[in-house]
């Protein structure tokens, strides 16, 4: 079993509690306190560990 950081666990919990795929900006709004940089780093790490997958790529703005 791979170890995850506290921040990665926070991001995973937000993802697990959602009924649909989330973008980094959605996670930012849901967290209330994590920075975008932290979220992006956590997502990259979780992806490399095989704990999440990319559903689709979209640009918001």
Supply the key terms.
3 helices; 61 residues; mainly alpha
Count of the domains = 1
Range of helix content: 40-55%
Quickly give the structural class. Answer: mainly alpha
Quickly count the helices. 3
Poorly predicted parts: none
Termini distance?
A: 37 Å
Mean pLDDT: 92
Question: Could you characterize the architecture of this molecule?
Answer:
- The chain is mostly helical and 61 residues long.
- It has one domain.
- 52% of the residues lie in helices and 0% in strands.
- Helix 1 crosses helix 3 and helix 2 packs across helix 3.
- The longest helix has 13 residues.
- The chain is globular and about 35 Å long.
- The mean pLDDT is 92.
Please describe the topology of this protein.
Layout: H1 6-16, H2 24-31, H3 36-48
Structure summary:
The protein is an all-alpha fold.
